[in-house]
Amino acid sequence: MIQLSGDRTVLRTDPNEVPGHIVSFSGYPAALSSADDYTLTSAGLASIETTIAIFNNTLYTDLFIKPEGQIHCWIRSFISNALTKGFTSSRDMTWFLKKYSYWPSYNIPYLSDISIISGFSRKGEEFNWYKWGSSPRARIFERDHHKVQDIDSLTKLMRFKPKEFDLPKDILAKKKDIYKLTHNRTLYFQGTNYEMFSKLRFRAWGGPPYDPLPVFNWNTTKVVANHFGQPQVWNFTYVNLEWETVTKVLDFE
């Protein structure tokens, strides 16, 4: 696995017309967008998302998915999707941020209309895991969010893997596409603070967490998978990214 972070600048444009002409993101070789869905722009926007599952199979029919007149989701992250067909829902959650000091995301929809159309409401009646405020990660955030005082404590919280959870899909940062092999283990972290964000910088950390767990080691793991070219021991640390070119948020104070 190779993971990179990038900085993309469109110089032939008027910043007044395109405020987000500079974009920094975490991604992978040859990727034009952040497959991790972590993007900072010179417009002062931090774009972050956690994907939700779809339990309503009717959404996969021709009634909603049309090859013509729609674009791929990674392109949607570049431009406004106001002119494209589809369903969007939004709400001002400033009150939540002021009351609780954070806005969490658990791969579970918060808005009721999204929860209903995706099928999460029905699944939530069966298991608390599918309820926005009742999932294991929601409980971790509710218990520990007050511990975050700086970028270091944020890093520690987001990479924390409690021993009492059997499935790593229940932790804060996880990667579901390797669940069958490694129980959905965390592979990366990205985070920023006010000062770093003003320069479109962020902290990146690749590899499974090892606090308080042992460092992942291909020689001792029960996972059987091809890993040619990978290090045997994944005892990596974080990198505070700094760009070679001048990058900053417009009119940031």
UniProtKB/TrEMBL annotation:
Record flagged with keyword Signal: yes
Family recorded in the similarity comment: Belongs to the phospholipase B-like family.
Keywords: Glycoprotein, Hydrolase, Lipid degradation, Lipid metabolism, Signal
Coiled-coil boundaries: none
Superkingdom as given in the UniProt entry: Eukaryota
Single GO cellular component term: extracellular region
Protein name: Phospholipase B-like
EC number: 3.1.1.-
Keyword Signal in annotation: yes
Purpose of the protein: Putative phospholipase.
Alphabetical list of Pfam families matching this protein: Phospholip_B
UniProt source species: Heterorhabditis bacteriophora (Entomopathogenic nematode worm)
InterPro entries linked: PLipase_B-like
GO biological process: phospholipid catabolic process
GO molecular function, one term: phospholipase activity
